[in-house]
Amino acid sequence: MQEAIGRAGTPINGGSAQSGSRVMVEARAVSKHFGSGEQVVKALDAVSVGIREGEFFTLLGPSGCGKTTLLRLIAGFEHPTAGAILLDGADISGLPPFRRPVNTVFQSYALFPHLTVAENIGFGLEMLGRPKAEIAETVAEMLQMVRMEAMRDRQTSQLSGGQQQRVALARALAPRPKVLLLDEPLSALDLKLRKEMQVELKRLQTETGITFVFVTHDQGEALAMSDRIAVMSEGNVLQVGSPTEIYEHPADHFVASFIGETNFLTAAVEGVDGGQVRLRLGGTLEVRAGLPDGMAPGPSVTVVVRPEHLRIADRDAGEGLPATVSDVVYLGTDTHYHLRLAGGEELFARVQNRPEGGEAWRVGDAVSAGFPPAAVRVLRD
Amino acid sequence: MAERAAGRPVPGRPFSVRRIPGFAGIAAVSFVLLYAPIVTLVVYSFNAGDSIALWEGLSLRWFAAAWANEQVQEATVRSLVVAASASAIATAVSTMAALGTTRTAPFPGSMAIYALINQPLMVPEIVTAVALLIVFAMIKISTGYSGLGYLIAAHAAFCVPFAYLPIRARLEGMDLSYEVAAADLYATPWQTFRRITLPLLSPGIVAGAMLAFVISLDDVVITEFVKSAGQDTLPTYMLGQLRRAVTPEVNAISTALLAVTVVLLSAFFVLNRQRR
Ligand SMILES: Nc1ncnc2c1ncn2[C@@H]1O[C@H](COP(=O)(O)OP(=O)(O)O)[C@@H](O)[C@H]1O
Ligand SMILES: [Mg+2]
Hints:
Chain A: Part of the ABC transporter complex PotABCD involved in spermidine/putrescine import. Responsible for energy coupling to the transport system. Chain A is an alpha+beta fold. Chain A is built from 8 helices and 20 strands.
C-alpha cells in the first residue's frame, strides 16, 4: 500500500548538483481542462516539457497561465484531461499523490497546527513506515540543514513566516523525494527575507541534488535561481532554456516582453543569406542579424534590442538611428533615457552611471541611438 | 439633544438600539423574568421546611432526601445511560454526516440532505414523539423487546442536528490544505483522516457530543411518549412527582441538573471559542 515507486534515491548530502541529461519529470502533451461545455477553461493545452535530473527548473509566467495546474498534475492532486506525466520514465498519471515520490512546498506552507516542528518534519517518513530511529536521525539532519535546531519542539503557530517556510522545506525534503515542487514559496515573504531565501533554496538544491520544480511569476527570481526556465502563457509553454538563452534569445514577442525590459522595432528585410538576414531599421540603418532556426522571414520582421545595449551619442558623432530625448530618469546606478525616433517609435535606453560622470543628455537633445549588431534579435512572427 | 433623545442616529455614529428610550428598563425586566424563577428554585432547594413557597431556613435536607430516594437514583442512572449512549451514537453519525457534506465534491441534492439532517430542529417535537410512539409500538409487538433501546434510539435521532452543527462548522472553517499536504507526504486517505482530520476536528466533536448530551438529558416530550413502564428518566420522574405532592426535593433535583448543564454548556462555549 505504502510503496511508492522506486523512492530510494538521491543522497541528501554531498550529492553533486550537476544536472544530468536524464529526464526526471516529463509532461507529454498534457492538457488539463476545467469545467465543460461553453465554460471550459483550458488551464493547460497540450504541454510537453522535460525536466532533467538534479536541475533547478522554473515554471515562469503571469498569473493564470497554468503553472500551479502543471505542478498539481505532477504532485497528483489533479489528473490530466489528456496526455501523460512520467516520473523517471514511468507513467504516473494514474497514481494518487501518496504513491508518488514527489513532495510539495505549499504557498501557504500548510504546516500541521497540532504537531510540533519535529513531528511535522517527520510526518512523511512516519507515513512511509520508517523505523523510529531513522526518523529521529533524519529529522535532526533536516533541522540542522534549515538551521532550525532550536525550534524542534515548538508549535508551528509560534514561528515567524520565514521559519515556517524553513520547516515546510524540511518537511518536504525529509522523505528524500525524487522531485521537490515549490509553488511560489517566497511570495508571502518580505523583500529582504525573499532574497535570503532565494540563496537558501539554491543552497539546499545544490546540497541535496534533488530535482526542484519552482513556480514563480517573478522573472527576476527565475533568472537568479534557475538552471532552466519554462516560460508559460495561457496554458502553453512558449520557450524552455537557460536564463541566458531566455533573456538573450527570446523565442517570441511574449517571452521578450515578459523577461526584462526590451525595445521592439520593425525592420524591413533586405535579403536573406543562409542563417543571416540583412535588415534596414528606421529607413537608414543597415544591420545583419541571425535568424531563428528554420525561419523564413516575410518582407518585414520584429526585432528586439535590450535597453542596456543601446548607446547614445551626439547626433553627428553617432551612426545609429536619429532620435530625440523625450524623458530622463536618474536612478542612482543607471539613468533611463526615453527616445523618440524620427518615425515616431519609442526607444528606451538604460545607461550605467560612471564615477567619472560622462555625457548626460537632456530632454530635447538630438542624439543618435546605436547598438552593436550582435544586440539585435529577430523574433518569430 | 432632543434629536438624540428620540433615538435618531447622530451623524458620524452608527445607530445604537441602546439609545432607544426605555431600552435599559425592558432589558432589566427581561432578565428578571428569565432568572428570577430559576434563582427562586435554586434558593428553595436549600429550604429546611416542607414547602416550596414558605422559607423556613437553610438546609441540605432535600438534597439528602433526593440522594437517598431509590427512584431518583434509578432515574438518574437511566438518564445518564440514555444521554451517554444517545450522544455517542449521534456524535458518530453527525461526524460522518459532516464529513460527507463538506469533505466531498459537491453533489446534487446536498442541500436537501443538509435540510434532512436538520429536520428535528424544524418538525414539532410532539409530532416526532407521536410518530416514534407508533413505530416503536409496532416493533415492540413484532419483536417483544421492550428495553432501553427505544429511548436511546429516539434520543440519538433528535440529538443528531445538535451534534452535527458544531462539527460541520468546525470542518467548514478547516482548511483543506492540511489534508492535501498529508496526502503529499504519503498518508493514505485513512491515515490522513486519523492523523490530521480527526485531531483537528476534535474540539468540534467534543462540543457536539456535549451539546447532544445536554439536550438528551433534559428531554421530556419524546421520552414521555416513548418510555415503557418503569423507564422514567430524571425529567419524566420529576414531571410525575409534580402531579402529586410537591416538595423541595424536586427543587433539589432541578438544581443539580442545572449545575450539570451549566458546567457542560460552559465547557462547550470554551471549546467552541478555541479557534484553530
Ligand atoms: N479547480 C479549478 N477549477 C476551475 N478553473 C481552474 C481550477 N484551477 C485552475 N483553474 C483555471 O486554470 C487557469 C490556470 O490556473 P493556475 O494553474 O492556478 O494558474 P497560475 O498558477 O499560473 O496562476 C486559470 O484560468 C484558473 O482560473
Ligand atoms: Mg499559481
